[in-house]
Amino acid sequence: MIRRTIVVALLLLAGFVAETRGNTILNGAGATFPAPLYAKWFEVYQQKKDVRIAYQKVGSGEGLRQILARSVDFGASDAFLTDEELERHGNALIHIPTCLGAVAVIYNLPGDPGLKLTPEALADIYQGRITSWADRRIGADNPKSRLPDQKIAVVSRLDGSGTTFIFTDYLSKVSPSWRASVGRGKKVTWPAGMRVAKNEGVADMVASVPGSIGYVSLNYAVSRSLPVLALRNRSGYYIKPTLASVSAAGDLDLQSDARVMITDTPAPGGYPISAFTYLLVYREQAYDQRERTKAEAMRDLLRWMVHEGQLYAPALEYAPLPGRVVDNTERLLERMTYEGAPLQ
Predict the structure, then answer these.
(1) pLDDT per residue as tens digits for the range 31-44
(2) What is the 8-class DSSP label of residue 9?
(3) Which of 97, 104, 208, 299 has the fewest Cβ atoms surrounding its Cβ within 10 A?
(4) For residue 145, what are the domain limits?
(5) Is the pTM of this model over 0.90?
(6) Comparing C-alpha atoms, which of 207, 209, 229 is closest to residue 220?
């Protein structure tokens, strides 16, 4: 009888431990740019591991705010922190690249004319200097297309957004007037047009407004079957965002901390508004009385994302991390510590 009682107690204890591990919860918040891929990753990972992951797709700006406030376990952002911002927060955060994506420029014109634009023309549209689809500067790039004499309805992001950061970084590189008057940022003062929140909002607005133009993460354009224009890259080629053209833009040696912008790529086959997107985590994981099991769960999730998780990226219109970027990311993960010791 005593032996049976001991066995039952041990089984109950084992069940309690399993339940405790199964109740490990990681909370994250941030970018909508990679949100469809993150949703897939977290669904698959939760089926494989005893970890629950809750992710709020609230935009890069809010994701950065929440990780800096330590109210989440990871923040997701397409915009990395500057040297000054990192220093202000004690250089406590690590940027982990998770995949490559593209900011697609979408439009709503009858018959889908297969639109092409120069960087200068795109910047002038967003500055309100080109206001009609019949403008000769657009016509010069599209001599075989019949473009309507219709006002251009410019759609931009209202919220703080990593997608906006990537888009305005590109415009700042290709247009001196944009750089001087608007500049780069997660949230800027738009010279023209209407503003809506999130990638979904921009995609839905462009889909519903004839004559409109907007910018979204590529997967939102594909999922809504919206036309995507071809942009002339630095090498003079008109390139659409595809897995191949995004991969070409991102196949490079990263600096040690992985914070790099690859817009306006010099790669001949590269799409010029490509970018890495990041998860931000604390280098020292033993903060705010954080349990080691949660720190280990965070490390294991990151490793899975940059290795096995990459297999799920192409189906959702994201380019997997190139091999040398994965190698660099492994070195970044080795910097994670718990109570000062490597989190191995």
Answers:
(1) 988 999 999 999 99
(2) H
(3) 208
(4) 103-254+261-274
(5) no
(6) 207
